[in-house]
Write a structure and sequence with these properties.
Blueprint (H helix, E strand, L loop, with lengths): L8 H9 L5 H19 L2 E4 L3 H8 L8 E5 L26 H8 L3 E6 L33 H8 L5 E6 L5 H7 L2 E4 L19 E6 L2 H11 L29 E4 L11 H13 L3 E4 L6 H18 L17 H14 L4 H23 L4 E5 L17 H5 L4 H5 L4 E9 L4 E8 L5 H14 L9
Parallel strand pairs: 2-3, 2-4, 7-8, 7-9
Antiparallel strand pairs: 1-3, 4-6, 5-6, 5-10, 9-11, 10-11
Helix pairs in contact: 2-3, 7-14, 9-10, 9-11
Amino acid sequence: MTNTHTMTLAQYLKGVAEKQFSPTEVTQAIQAEISKVNTDLNIYLTENEQAVQETEAGSAQPLAGAAIAVKDNISTKGMRTTASSTVLDTFVPPYDATIMTKLKAAGMSIIGKTNLDAWAHGSSTETSQYGRTLNPRNPEHLPGGSSGGSAAAVAADTCIAAIGTETAGSIRQPAAWCGVVGLKPSYGRVSRSGVIAMASSTDSPGPITKTVEDAAILLNYMAGHDKYDGTTSPQSVPDYTQALGKSIKGLKVGLLYQDIAGLEVVNPHIQAAAKVLEELGAVVEPVAAMDPHYAISVYTVVQRGEVSSNLARFDGIRYGNDRSFFGDEAKRRIMLGTYTLSKGYADQYYTTAQKVRTAFMQDFQKLFSNYDVLISATSPSFAKKIGVSENAAMFGELEDMLLEPSSITGLPGINVPCFHDTTTNLFIGLNIMAPMWREDQVITVADAYEKATSWNTWRKV
């Protein structure tokens, strides 16, 4: 079989089970593709020299040695983990993050570690201290961030699937810009243990994949309580693949942010997506919600404060180079976070931000009392051109504005492609949100939409 590197995870698992090809053949095909494109696109910071051996070792397990890309802020035992910062240039973790332990037990093979905004600080992958990643769909444009390397790895067919993390848009926004699927689970559904912390109260690891089905498969092996992470939920995890292929007839869908200025490019395509959902039997209504602009301020204050605390441990004693190796963006966030947490200012800024955060939670609670899911654009625009984030201190917060409300409230959400501009080869994404712990609901709606449209480049409709 030719072009095995372009398969979805579901196709790969089916092909291995039917002995159409071996897991090793696929891994080697992916490695060959990486060697062709990585110098230009700068997707992988570290390639796994043991990928073939790991593939063979996991071939009898449920994930059958699938070659998966891993964001480089996720600890991998014996394999360099930098968070795209030269502070950690030589850091090799002595243990795996919990999600790595779980995925390896299921047979996953790590194909390599992907580039990101340094410390996950950004929405462009331009703050990486190892150089920006380019968008495989159009290399004159950015892949988004902070999981830009993982989204680009999927879009470039240099992995079967990928793992990212989201603090406020960092899975869904790059997925939208790269024309792939990105699922952010509920906060606490997936363990953060072993993930280099950015903002501890919102960090959420999740899958970035070629299809919604692939995201459901991966989430099955990532989700669950972890004794090493006290914020994970003890409730049982459903089989997310059971949420696939279901009717959405009668489902109530709230359409958000149609009256927000600056969304003129994306909103017509979101309205078109809403019509598709209506044709599938859902009831779609425009609804008013708290202005997402307020979430920018909340996220900026809370995230900077938690960054200041979390980056304090990287002092050059335990983890590598000293603090002089921090990049400009990290320094800015540390200073602003330290300021907002300081005596006399914490009440003025941090406490106020947490109160507004609670107001967002209450607003969503009210909305979900009437609607099963909420939809909006994922990003206010198509992927932007390289260099646009330089000297733009609030670039990430503005690009993630439509996702920050659901991130600061811990809600699950998924991005699915909903428009493809054939002139630029760039995409617009549809964001689907549900109440806490209802990842199954976003999977059901996203899967139904994906199968009813032709925007996903790995599906033949």
